[in-house]
Amino acid sequence: MSCDLAGIETPFPIGATLPSIYLDDDHAQGLCAVFDRMLVPVFVVLDSFPAHLDPATAPEDSLNWLAAWIGLVLDGHESPEKKRELIAAGADLLRWRGTVTGVHDAITAAFGVTPEITESGGVNVSSEPTGPPDAVADAGITVVLRVDDPDAIDLQRLDAVVTRVKPAHLPHRVDVVGR
Fold first, then answer.
1. For the chain, percent helix, then strand, then coil, each to nearest 5?
2. What's CA 1's distance to the chain center, in Å?
3. pTM for this structure?
4. What pLDDT, in 10s, does the model give residues 109-145?
5. What is the distance between the alpha carbons of residues 126 and 135, in angstroms, rounded to a whole number?
6. What ranges do the domains of the chain cover?
7. Which of 58, 79, 144, 146 is most solvent-facing, going by the fewest CB within 10 Å?
């Protein structure tokens, strides 16, 4: 975290809290002044900590940290304003993580394009707790982006976004096609 601390004084100078015998001791007061300068960043951060937790007021270098706190993975293509928007909407986005709605919203937020998502709804089950599935269903999810210029969409980035927001056990396929 970076900030300019020039001219900021500690609200609680240590030298003033010393026993009276040290109040006139230049060496003790000088040592306390050094400690005060070292503690100014701590007081600044603690006093402004609520602002660091609010995506609207957090410093830009704190946005990735805030995103990690709520499990939101940013891929580095977002502007600071977009990061703030995604973090602010994070609670809503995370509620839908692992669902078709969550995949839809994540792709729309990342690419600005509404995807077509097909989910098979199939499941694999076993009558034995540790046995193989009795019948293998064709479970999976398919994501298709229809855009004017398919070359403008990074297919690896799309795949990475889908991988992060879909259920971990569900295979997926992504495709970008022209309109």
1. 45, 10, 40
2. 16
3. 0.60
4. 888 899 999 988 766 677 888 877 766 667 789 999 9
5. 8
6. 20-51, 99-179
7. 79
